Structures are given as structure tokens and as C-alpha cells.
Amino acid sequence: MVDTSSLGLGWEVYVIFRLFVLDQNKDEFLILQDAMGKERRFHVLKLEWGFDQFIPLEEFNDASNGYLVGDTCVFGAEVLVKERNKCKGECLFLAKLTSASNYKHVWKIENFSKLEAKLYESEVFVAGNQKWKIKLYPKGQGVGRGSHISVYLALADLSTITRDSKIYVHFTLRIRDQVLSKHNEKKASTWLSTSSEDWGWSTFVELSYFNKAENGFLMNDVCIVEAEVLRISKAL
């Protein structure tokens, strides 16, 4: 979304959209859309939605597929605006982070193969005047139990948050590849509160993939997990 100044404080826009690229050889469109036409919520802290893997570069650059012809391509969008709302009774305070690198927490886990407990937590760290911790389930939980490692970012001190307030956070969690730096990482933007204190992935990385030495995630029985907090705000 662009030019949102006319929407007023606390605006929200719910949209169903499709993005497409033209096959200029067949005059047909390759269309990408969220499964089941899922609607997306745009707001002041989330101005864009899309697809990280829209089309493979090799496929796009192959002239025989028609997407890039004469160094020219055609992209388009079809947008259905379902609803516009103005939120009332909520005040948002943005905590500016001067440098994302200042809010990266590195957690070095030794003797990883000997971990027996269901859940492990990192030491508490501070980002944007808020206390955080990383939660790791070495044998997974939920749908990832027994097959994946589960990793979450969590609020570490709920006493600083009132029952009706919530924290918006944009963050990255990663397990470092200690050999080739091809890290396994995932990003998220979400609201956290006293009733929803963590967010992450029950299927963060498959155990069989994690345990392969050539992938570099487990070296000398040491695993390195990082949390990078990129943006924080608080709604009261």
C-alpha cells in the first residue's frame, strides 16, 4: 500500500489479491494467489504482502517460457478490497531501534545430542526495553514432535505488560550453518501479549536435515541459535 495518509489513525484494510506475470509467447498469465483466496490485513506496520518465491529465476529467464522476451516482462495485480476499518481505543507507541545488529542475541548450545528435557530456554536478553528469550524444543512439539526442532521467540517478563496491552514485534530466528553460512532462518511479524507470550515454528527444521554434518548446524555437538529483533512497538 502507498499513500495511506487519507485513511486516518489506526486504519486497517482487508484485501484478497492475485499477482501474475504474462507468458508473452502464449498470451497467458501465470497467476499466484493465497490458498482458498485467503484475505490479508494491511495496516501501518504491514504495508505489503506477497510471495517470497513467486517464480524460479531460471524458469523466468528462459525465453522459451515467454516471461522475459526482448528484455521485457509484464507483471500485474488484481485486488479486491473487502473491508476498511478504523481501530478505536488503542494507542500505538513505536520503539525505535537504532541498529538491528544491536538486538541480535546469540545462543550457543553445547552437548546438543545429550539434551533430554522437552524444552530449553536461552538466557534473557533486552531489545527495545523489553525482555526476551528463545525457547527451543530439541525433539519438537505440536505437529513437529519427533520429526523437527521447534523454535520460538518469547516474552520473558510478563509483569511489564498489562492485561489489555500487547507488543508488536518483527523478528528473525535462525540456526547457524557453521560451515558454509547457509543458515536456516525464518521471519515473522506478530502481536504478543500476556495470553499469547511466544511465536515461532513447531517445524523450524527437520531433525534428519539438522543432523547431517555437511549442513553445518551441529558442529562438535554445538548448535548456535540466533534471535534478531528488528522492530518493536507497544499498543496500550
Give the SSE map:
Blueprint lengths: L10 E13 L4 E6 L6 E4 L13 H5 L13 E12 L5 E4 L8 E6 L10 E2 L3 E3 L2 E8 L10 E8 L10 E10 L8 E9 L5 E9 H4 L12 E13 L1
Antiparallel strand pairs: 1-2, 1-3, 1-4, 5-14, 6-14, 7-9, 8-9, 9-10, 10-13, 11-12, 11-14
InterPro entries: MATH/TRAF_dom, TRAF-like
Pfam family, one: MATH_2
Protein name: MATH domain-containing protein
Q: Radius of gyration over alpha carbons?
A: 21 Å
CATH class call of the largest domain: Mainly Beta
Our count of helices gives 2
User: Biggest sheet, in brief?
Assistant: 5 strands, antiparallel
CATH architecture of the largest domain: Sandwich
CATH superfamily of the largest domain: Apoptosis, Tumor Necrosis Factor Receptor Associated Protein 2, Chain A
Write down the CATH topology of the largest domain.
Apoptosis, Tumor Necrosis Factor Receptor Associated Protein 2, Chain A
Proportion in helices: under 10%
Overall mean pLDDT score? Answer: 86
Q: Spell out the helices and strands N to C.
A: EEEHEEEEEEEEEEHE
Q: Structural class, please?
A: mainly beta
End-to-end distance, in Å?
25 Å
**Count the strands?**
14
As residue ranges, the low-confidence spans are: 87-101
Domain MATH: 1-79, 102-229
Organism: Citrus sinensis (Sweet orange)
Protein name: MATH domain-containing protein
Pfam families: MATH_2
